[in-house]
Structures are given as structure tokens and as C-alpha cells.
Design a protein that fits this description.
There is one protein chain. This protein has 390 residues and is mainly beta. The protein has 2 domains: 62-236, Jelly Rolls, CATH 2.60.120.10; 241-388, Sandwich (Jelly Rolls), CATH 2.60.120.10. Helices cover 11% and strands 36% of the residues. It is built from 7 helices and 24 strands. The chain has helices at residues 33-38, 40-43, 176-181, 185-192, 353-358, 362-369, 373-378; strands spanning 57-59, 66-68, 71-76, 88-94, 99-104, 109-123, 129-134, 138-142, 148-163, 174-175, 209-210, 235-237, 244-246, 249-254, 266-272, 277-282, 288-294, 296-304, 307-314, 317-321, 326-331, 337-343, 351-352, 387-388. The strands form 3 sheets. Strands 2, 3, 4, 5, 6, 7, 8, 9, 10, 11 and 12 form an 11-stranded antiparallel sheet that branches. Strands 1-20-17-22-15-14-13 form a 7-stranded antiparallel sheet, with no helix packed on it. Strand 6 (109-123) and strand 7 (129-134) form a beta hairpin. The two termini are 44 Å apart. The chain binds manganese (II) ion (2 copies). Residues 281, 283, 288, 321, 327, 341 line the site of one manganese (II) ion (MN). One manganese (II) ion is lined by residues 103, 105, 109, 148.
């Protein structure tokens, strides 16, 4: 145990589980000091935290990396984060030309392009097709059951996929190569009207992700369907959308009202400046699944019955808030905090604590909280959602 830090000495200030009022005591180890440094509000929770709220954070850095020639993927599902039953997420990167193969699944797929460009394809049950290029800040949505593919263009790409079922796994989908490998050649021959030898080169198992050449320009790859293109676009330019701007940041909301195909997933792309916070609020429709894109922050969740719990979050983490639980997110770093909040819903919906109080008779609010005149005067009737400075 000689290497266990016993004093706050040396260049690394070892944090101790001691609150400013003296509560707690030193931890001489064994301990993971680097993890404690990453989670200051877990080591020394705010004194207002209490109770038995379950874990609501998981980092993609703690997941299994699926490495393939052509790219990688990793996922956060109920297996890693048991409370996250409504949605599951996959973080995937493809090298230039890398392909997430032709496949389909029982869940709808919502995606956000983090960097780079890709070509996406799909076909619906009426034989109408969709082929488009997506870039940083773009979304796509593939309705449940419809086949699709993703192929990286010149620079490669990285994206977040979100599925409307916490039990989803991207390693357990229906893939074209898998079906070919598990169908007798005479059946394939009869199905396509060609000799069995036409299938000598088929893959012998699911490819999942594979390497390919970067495809040519979109126009050169066009395939015209006699039934036309899908009537509702599977793509939406979220980052290009005009945000709601507030003193502490900005919000871009996307749901079936402005991205009509996205019937089962609603989202907000939130920007919080250093020192600002996503205000105290909750959602009256469903659980919230978060993905942190940049910066670092702190989320506190209030679960009623005297319970509250704080999680330190940073780029690459997933956060979760159960339906209707109160919460807020503070930017605790020196750079802008960007995150996505997603809901298994056709609409984004948000109840602001501030607005609720502002729209309730003042005397009632005053009596309930013994509220000061300053607080009552500060309440504002504003359109949700609000990011603001303290
Ligand atoms: Mn998919
Ligand atoms: Mn929220």
C-alpha cells in the first residue's frame, strides 16, 4: 500500500470526502483518485443531496468498443444504465468510405452527426427511396422496420444514434449479409432468378461495419424509384436551425412539428455558456436521455420524498432523468457546454419552475414558500425552455 496517497502532497491535490463544515473524513485508500477527481460532486455531494436515487449517468468511456475494419461503435443501453428504459444510444465512427451495412431493426433510429459527412440510404414499404448526404449538426430518422445504411464520405465521420427502446443493441439487428449467409443458395437462386453460383462470393456472416471506397458524388449514385422519393424527408438540419437565444445560451428544439417523420423521438440541442445553467424544470411527457457533446457540467435530479442526487458530466457522457423528475444542469467548466436532450415522444415538452410560479397567484406562492418580495418580483413568464445565468 506504499503507493496509496496518504497526504495532500505533490502536484496532484488528492480530493477528500470532507465537506466544508467538516462532515466526512479522509479516505486513505484503496481508491481511484482519478475517478474521484472527475466526480467531485459524487465524492462530496451538495448537502441538499439525499436518499436512494439510482445511477443516472454512464460514460461511453466505460463501454465495450466494437472495433471493425471500417470503423467502431459502442453503446449505452439498459445493460449498462438500467434506469434508461425508454431510449438506448450508440456512438459510432466510420473511416472514409467505411459502411454500416444494409440492415434494419424493430426500433426507430434517430441520429445526430457529430463531425464529418456520410451518405445515408433507405427505402419505405411503398418502394419510395431516400438517398442523402448529411454533415455535422444534421439529424436523420429511420422509422422502425425500414432498411437503411450509412457510409462515411471523404473525411470519415462520427455520430450518435438513439433508439426508442432501452433494450436495443446495435450488435443485434437484422443485416443483409447475415440473412444471405443463413439462406440456402438454392433459395437465393430461386428468389433472384439467377444460378446458385451467383452467390459464391457472399459473406459467410454479418459484416456490421466494413471498409469500402468513398462513394462518388450524390448525383452519380442516384437511383430513381418508379414510386418516387419518401414523402417526408428522413433528414433534418438541426444545427442550421435558428435557435431560441437566451442570456445564458441557446436551444434548438426538434420534434414531429418541424421534422415530421420523427414521430417517436423529440430532442433539444442545448448550449450553456460558462457560469450559466439550464434552468430548474421537468418534462411532462417522458424520461430524458442526454448526450454531452462538449464541456463539463453538473446535473442535479430531484425525485421527491426528500431525494436529490448530483452527477458530474462531461463530453462523451450520457445522463438520464426519469419522467417528471425535477432537474437542472450547470456549466461548471470554462468552455461552452453543449448537450442533446432526447425523449421518446412526438413532442418536446418542458415545464419551467420559474414560469409555473409566475403564472400562479402570488399570495399562494408566497404562502407556500414563505417567498420574499424579491423572489416574487423576479418570476418571469417566458417561453420554455430557458438557459440562464444564476
Ligand atoms: Mn440502424
Ligand atoms: Mn430536461
Amino acid at each position: 500500500m506504499e503507493n496509496v496517497p496518504r497526504r495532500q502532497a505533490g502536484p496532484l491535490k488528492v480530493p477528500q470526502p470532507v465537506r466544508k463544515d467538516g462532515a466526512g473524513g479522509p479516505d486513505f485508500g484503496p481508491r481511484d483518485v482519478l475517478r474521484d477527481l472527475e466526480n467531485p460532486d459524487m465524492l462530496v455531494p451538495p448537502a441538499t443531496d439525499a436518499g436512494l436515487l439510482p445511477n443516472m449517468k454512464f460514460s461511453f468511456s466505460d463501454t465495450h468498443m466494437q472495433l471493425n475494419h471500417g470503423g467502431w461503435s459502442r453503446e449505452i443501453t439498459v445493460r449498462d444504465l438500467p434506469i434508461a428504459t425508454t431510449l438506448a444510444g450508440v456512438n459510432m465512427s466510420l473511416v472514409p468510405g467505411g459502411v454500416r451495412e444494409l440492415h434494419w431493426h424493430q426500433q426507430s433510429e434517430w441520429a445526430y452527426m457529430i463531425w464529418g459527412c456520410a451518405r445515408i440510404t433507405s427505402v419505405d414499404a411503398q418502394g419510395r427511396n431516400f438517398i442523402a448526404d448529411v454533415e455535422k449538426g444534421d439529424l436523420w430518422f429511420f422509422p422502425a422496420g425500414l432498411p437503411h445504411s450509412i457510409q462515411a464520405l471523404e473525411e470519415g465521420c462520427e455520430f450518435l444514434l438513439v433508439f426508442d427502446d432501452g433494450n436495443f443493441s446495435d450488435l443485434n439487428t437484422l443485416s443483409i449479409s447475415d440473412w444471405f449467409a443463413h439462406t440456402p443458395k438454392d433459395v437465393l437462386a430461386a428468389n433472384f432468378g439467377v444460378p446458385e453460383s451467383a452467390f459464391d462470393g457472399r459473406p459467410d456472416k454479418q459484416l456490421y461495419i466494413f471498409e469500402d471506397r468513398v462513394p462518388g458524388p450524390l448525383a452519380s449514385e442516384a437511383v430513381e424509384s418508379p414510386y418516387g422519393a419518401v414523402p417526408l424527408s428522413f433528414k433534418h438540419k438541426l444545427l442550421a436551425q435558428e435557435p431560441l437565444r437566451t442570456p445564458g445560451g441557446s436551444v434548438r428544439i426538434v420534434d414531429s412539428t418541424n421534422f415530421p417523420i420523427s414521430k417517436t423521438i423529440a430532442a433539444a440541442l442545448v448550449e450553456i455558456e460558462p457560469g450559466a445553467m439550464r434552468e430548474m424544470h421537468w418534462h411532462p411527457n417522458n424520461d430524458e436521455w442526454q448526450y454531452y457533446l462538449s464541456g463539463q457540467g453538473r446535473m442535479t435530479v430531484f425525485g421527491g420524498n426528500g431525494t436529490a442526487r448530483t452527477f458530474d458530466v462531461r463530453a462523451g457522457d450520457v445522463g438520464y432523468v426519469p419522467f417528471a423528475f425535477g432537474h437542472y444542469v450547470q456549466n461548471t467548466g470554462s468552455e461552452t457546454l453543449w448537450f442533446l436532450e432526447m425523449f421518446r415522444s412526438d413532442r418536446f415538452a418542458d415545464v419551467s419552475l420559474n414560469q409555473w410560479m409566475a403564472l400562479t397567484p402570488r399570495d399562494l406562492v408566497q404562502a407556500n414558500l414563505n417567498a420574499s418580495p424579491e423572489l416574487l418580483n423576479a418570476l418571469r413568464k417566458v417561453k420554455w425552455p430557458v438557459v440562464k445565468y444564476p
